[in-house]
Design goal:
With about 850 residues, this protein is mainly α. The chain has 42 helices and eight strands. About 5% of the residues have low confidence.
């Protein structure tokens, strides 16, 4: 049931599928006014209310009542309930958004005034970025989370919480936001551009938590707000971000009793928080008048900081409240006089940590120190392997509020607690090195163990688990390289490839592989297999980013190292991966040869997944060479294997290949079936590349069956996926067919525009098959315009060029056959000579000059 006029208007508008911008245009008012009305910040004037009634299709007999509610003469419950929203469409990116907004584990105490002020500020249209500042442990995160929960229904896409505690550099903010949203990257365009494009039309509240260590490069938040006008940011940081769009709200400690008055002390919010936490530790805890005096003193000593109060309250089972206050007070005096590198506002909080530390058993201290190695949360198994943390020890530390249990089997630490424990660990360099070694060994093994899961029915779950541990995985990777522990890296490389490929982290993948290559080339140790595989995997990441020259160089270097080793596993992986790269470069014969060799190596091992992968890749190679019968058979065999393995993503990829091959064989019903099944398995959020490919291939099927209008719709739906991802090669491929659809509809100038765009892309990428595919279509235009000689020359170049796809060669031969009778023998000889002597660069320049 709607509780306010603004929410009723919002639901009515969304039921009619009208955006705020559209409603503002119809009413003739500003977008800001619609936003304020729906946020209950403003009420409409009578004139605006009458226009709202008209454009929101309020029945005539209800308009008088609507105007009275709008002018606050009647309450909103007099209106008929706004209809429920329609079912989300499966292809809508907005409806597929999965914001992460965790439920608070504790109630919010003593923040009523701050909560009202922050909510009012966030709702102010002039405020796009609000930063909650204050010392660590003051409760910024908890306050921000409460604001998000209360305001999420005011935003079309709700609110999303992004924890940046374990994020080490500002360039990783973008992946962290994407992970919280469930957004997957893909393609060659930089990650920031992909995410910004996603946010462009979204209305969402983003909560970015713990930014103080990421201020170098924080300007990207200003860029995001400028690019996405309906996004609002609520951030937490120990210091201001100093951005031009930033508004600041300082969060202070809870009010503390200035004077110890027993008749009012329990109404104080700081005391109330201490008492609540003390009762969680001991349900029978009932403070005496003496305890209340001591609790008030504790609140003063920790300056009302919630974390300090919570840590102090954990000891009520061990010490009296007076003893707790006395211990903290002694620590404060000492720290104030000797620890000059600690900020003034943190000295009392540090005393709480020091006090808590001194009351831990030696075993608990060792575990807490070792747990500080873990980043961004950890599983119980990791705590046991890295820190020797048994379940009783974990439970003890949870009870002391030094670690937190979020869900069954998963824990984390408040960042300040982790930092304090890390300082303690650094006191013994040998202990720290041993802990880092255990951490790296565990997480690299964890990475490797997920390889099989990434290839089967648990693919989505494995992806979530690895993404949750990404900060630990990165730290383990870096430590193993700095310590030259290369042998520990090799078993995790293939899972590394699968994870980074699925998540679209190509740029980071290149950098992390480069760190291995650089380190290996600087050592005398022999790690040929690791170096060869690393070079080959880096080749794949370069290919996915469209950097074909670097991809080919790395592939050649890797294969040169791996061949003498005669390792069938490495050869099967590397040779199969090379197919798409070589095909795009026009080296289809080499691609087929490598594909056969990779498939043979996979069959030798009897590894079903690798056999299926090699068959799938070979199917793509065969399509490029025009051998559609063989491609169809290869893809069918691959599909059967992937179905048995339940590898959803590669089922979808193989269905796309199979659909294209079936179309080329004129098996149109089968082609449609394969492509529609591919679409049913994936979503735009999970795999935009597969979505674009399936739509594009369906468009080609419609084109082949003589339905250019339907083809145009599907191809136009396909191309934005690749444009947003920066996958220029795929975009050019489908632009070619979009040009054909336009030509079939008689829009010749539009067709020429599409073919020239694709020609430009092929030139930029040095992707010769794409160049040739569009050159032959432009040659046909020259024929229609009477330039027979030029058309024949270009057709000859396409027919003779080794990189041309078979389809392009067939078109070229057909066009030449049509034109021969229109040219003399002397003209034909001259044209043939020019086609064979002019350089391709000259031809490209000439082609561009002709249009």
């Amino acid at each position: 049931m709607d509780t306010s006029f603004g929410s009723w208007i919002k639901r009515r508008r969304k039921t009619l599928d009208i955006t705020q911008q559209e409603l503002a245009q119809r009413v003739g008012c500003s977008l800001s006014l619609i936003f304020k009305i729906e946020s209950d910040v403003r009420r409409p004037s009578r004139q605006v209310a009458e226009l709202l009634a008209e454009h929101l299709e309020i029945p005539p007999d209800q308009r008088a009542l609507f105007l009275k509610v709008a002018r606050q003469e009647k309450t909103v419950d007099h209106l008929e309930p706004a209809p429920s929203l329609s079912t989300p469409q499966p292809d809508s990116l907005s409806n597929l958004l999965q914001p992460n907004l965790p439920l608070p584990l504790t109630s919010l105490i003593g923040r009523e005034h701050e909560l009202r002020m922050v909510i009012r500020q966030v709702q102010d249209p002039a405020c796009r970025l609000l930063t909650l500042t204050g010392p660590g442990g003051v409760g910024k995160t908890r306050l921000a989370l409460e604001v998000a929960h209360q305001l999420r229904d005011r935003f079309d896409q709700g609110a999303c919480f992004v924890s940046l505690v374990g994020t080490r550099a500002s360039e990783l903010i973008i992946p962290a936001i994407a992970d919280a949203l469930g957004f997957s990257f893909s393609g060659t365009i930089e990650l920031k551009a992909q995410l910004f494009n996603f946010f462009k039309e979204k209305q969402i509240l983003l909560v970015l938590d713990n930014l103080e260590h990421l201020l170098n490069g924080i300007e990207l938040l200003d860029e995001l707000l400028e690019y996405a006008p309906n996004v609002k940011l609520l951030t937490t940081s120990r210091e201001q971000l100093n951005l031009r769009t930033e508004w600041v709200f300082e969060v202070q400690g809870l009010p503390v009793p200035p004077n110890i008055e027993l008749d009012s002390v329990e109404s104080n919010s700081a005391v109330a928080l201490f008492l609540q936490r003390a009762n969680q530790v001991n349900v029978n805890f009932t403070p005496t008048p003496e305890d209340l005096h001591a609790i008030a003193r504790i609140c003063q000593l920790v300056e009302g900081l919630p974390l300090g109060l919570e840590l102090a309250a954990t000891w009520v089972n061990t010490l009296s409240c007076r003893e707790i206050a006395a211990e903290i007070e002694r620590g404060l005096d000492f720290l104030a006089s000797t620890k000059r590198d600690i900020p003034e506002r943190h000295r009392s909080l540090h005393a709480v940590f020091e006090y808590s530390w001194n009351l831990l058993s030696l075993e608990e201290q060792v575990v807490l120190k070792n747990l500080s190695i873990l980043q961004g949360g950890f599983q119980r198994e990791a705590a046991e392997q890295v820190a020797a943390a048994t379940l009783p020890l974990l439970s003890s530390l949870v009870s002391k509020s030094l670690i937190r249990r979020h869900e069954p089997g998963r824990y984390d630490q408040h960042e300040l607690v982790r930092q304090y424990a890390a300082i303690r660990l650094r006191e013994d360099p040998q202990d720290k090195m041993s802990a880092r070694d255990r951490h790296a060994a565990y997480y690299l093994a964890f990475w490797g163990e997920h390889e099989t899961q990434l290839k089967g029915a648990r693919q989505r779950e494995a992806l979530r688990e690895l993404t949750a541990e990404i900060d630990n995985l990165r730290a383990a990777w870096e430590w193993s390289i700095t310590q030259s522990r290369f042998a520990t890296l090799y078993p995790s490389l293939r899972a590394f490839l699968l994870l980074y490929d699925l998540r679209g982290w190509y740029a980071e993948g290149i950098e992390r592989i480069e760190s291995i290559i650089h380190a290996l080339r600087g050592t005398r140790d022999q790690h040929h297999e690791l170096l060869g595989l690393a070079l080959s995997l880096q080749s794949w990441f370069y290919f996915r980013r469209g950097q074909l020259k670097q991809a080919r160089e790395r592939f050649d270097q890797g294969l040169m190292i791996l061949r003498p080793l005669d390792d069938p596993v490495a050869l099967a992986d590397v040779l199969s991966l090379s197919g798409p790269l070589l095909t795009v470069l026009g080296e289809t014969a080499t691609a087929l040869e490598h594909g056969r060799e990779g498939l043979a190596a996979a069959r030798t091992m009897g590894d079903v997944w690798r056999i299926a992968y090699a068959l799938m890749m070979q199917g793509g190679n065969l399509v490029g060479s025009g051998r559609y019968d063989e491609a169809y058979a290869s893809a069918q065999e691959a599909l059967a294997h992937f179905r048995a393995l339940s590898d959803t993503r590669l089922i979808a990829v193989t269905l796309n290949t199979l659909g294209f091959a079936a179309m080329q064989l004129s098996l149109y019903p089968e082609a449609r079936g394969y492509l529609q099944e591919s679409l049913s398995l994936i979503t735009p959020m999970e795999d935009p590349w597969n979505m674009g490919t399936a739509y594009g291939n369906l468009g080609i099927v419609e084109l082949a069956e003589g339905n250019p209008s339907e083809a145009q719709v599907l191809l136009q739906k396909s191309i934005p996926f690749f444009a947003n991802l920066g996958m220029l090669g795929d975009m050019a491929f489908y632009l070619t067919y979009l040009g054909e659809a336009a030509a079939a509809l008689g829009a010749i100038d539009e067709a020429e525009h599409y073919w020239l765009d694709a020609f430009h892309i092929g030139r930029e990428m040095q992707a010769f098959p794409i160049l040739m595919a569009n050159l032959i279509r432009l040659a046909q235009l020259h024929t229609d315009r009477g330039d027979i000689a030029r058309a024949y020359e270009w057709a000859t170049v396409v027919f003779d060029h080794p990189a041309s796809w078979q389809d392009s060669k067939d078109r070229a031969e057909k066009l030449r056959a049509q034109l021969r009778s229109k040219l003399s023998a002397q003209e034909l000889e001259s044209i043939q000579l020019m086609a064979h002597t002019n350089s391709l660069d000259d031809l490209i320049q000439e082609t561009l000059a002709k249009f």
